[in-house]
Amino acid sequence: MKIFSGWHRFVFGLALIFLLTHLFSVRELHTNSKMEEPPRKQLNKKLDHLVLGPAAGQGLSNRLQCQGTKALNRIHSSNSRSGVDGSITFVTVFTIYNSSLNDVDDKSSNTVVGNASYNKFGRSTALLNVFINFIQVTMPQSKVIILTDPVSDLSVLRNGVSLYPIEGEYSRDKLMLQRIRSYITFLETRLQNLSQKPKNITHYIFTDSDIAVVDDLRQIFRDHPNFHVALTFRNNKAQPLNSGFIAVRGTPEAILRAKLFLQEVLKVYSTKYRNASRMLGDQLALAWVVKSKPHFDASRFGKALAFSEDIGGTSVVFLPCSLYNWTPPEGAGQFHGMPLDAKVVHFKGSRKRLMLESWNFYSSSLEVSDMLCLILGSGRTKYDF
Questions:
Q1: HEC string of 322-336?
Q2: Of 336, 329, 339, 340, which Cα lies nearest the Cα of 375?
Q3: Which of 27, 108, 129, 254 is the most buried (most CB within 10 A)?
Q4: Do 188 and 257 form a contact (C-beta atoms < 8 A)?
């Protein structure tokens, strides 16, 4: 019995030593793996330089093919220099917040892009200027109107660019709601001007100021001659419509119908989606107004083909985001590369540095297709804007 007890203690001791050794090894392995893995925050940290990765869409004949920043094929230009009745004016909402002005002398938050250093205020105005630059290169006869807060100390001294102050609530939490109000007010003034002094037709394209127009957009009005409003869509069940690009034909009837359409969107936004007034509410309201119409077939948002629909008396043409609102890496077509006939690149969210870098690259190369390779290869990374 004593021999058995001694043997039992011996076996128990060996088991205990093995268990402790195993636990120590696991703990050491876990500690080493933590040291080798970058912290989670570091993985999500925005970079302060462009990172060029493989360009999506390789091997697809209708997509841009790239070798680094060199395009192996070329984008298809719309060639719409003629056959369009009327001129084009781009309209965007932009304001300067008091907090931005306070950062003018704050060097600690400066960001360097190329040879330039920007504070928070400088970054915003630099993006606005790049937005104008792309329009003036691609559509040099077009004008730009900036809807802004009357109390904003904004100054843009550029040919073909003008400020249009509109009273309203321009705080960050209300800016998207105010944007629709500003669009409606602007359309009302255009309608009044046309009734008093009929002029040549001017079509309007309302956009975010973080887009790059890379092809002539006048063909929208040539290829779709009967619409009042043009919206861009993507294959997204909850938010199929993006409000960053809205085109309005310049006839009195179309401007009136566009105003009434946006008034309905504003009503829905203010009642159903007011809690999302900082962002997304406008897109949710757009989708509700469109999809709530009887017999509207929302399955058409799943195919990147333009289509038209009457929405409460407004003739709306729906244009695919993959061509008129392409976003790296979000939006329609992102996993299949960039279509060769993409006309607008939207630098949403954390892609603002990429917009400035793209303009710098274009300025040195003057090759749109090569610049698009830079965007395509860099678009999946978050940057420091």
A1: HHHCECCCCCCCHHH
A2: 329
A3: 254
A4: no
In this prediction the pTM is 0.85
Which tokens is 69 given?
Answer: 């920043």
* Sites in the chain below the pLDDT cut of 50: 1-4, 11, 20, 23-43
CB burial of residue 291 (10 Å; 0-12, 13-18, 19+):
middle
Q: To the nearest whole number, what is the mean pLDDT of the chain?
A: 85
End-to-end Cα separation, the chain, in angstroms = 77
| Predicted pLDDT of residue 186 | 98
User: Domains in the chain, please, with CATH?
Assistant: 67-378 (3.90.550.10)
pLDDT of 116 reads 85
- Give 384's contacts (C-beta < 8 A, 6+ positions apart): 46, 47, 48, 111, 353
Per residue in 363-377, pLDDT (tens digit) is 999 999 999 999 999
Extended strands (E) in the chain = 66-67, 70-71, 87-93, 111-113, 116-118, 143-148, 161-165, 202-207, 211-213, 229-233, 241-248, 307-311, 314-320, 344-346
Tokens 């100390």, residue?
153
Give tens-digit pLDDT for 229-278.
Answer: 999 999 988 899 999 999 999 999 999 999 999 999 999 999 998 887 67
Nearest to 220 by CA among 363, 320, 129: 320
Two structure tokens written together for 337:
């590369």
For the chain, what percentages of helix, strand and coil (3-state, to nearest 5) are there?
45, 20, 40
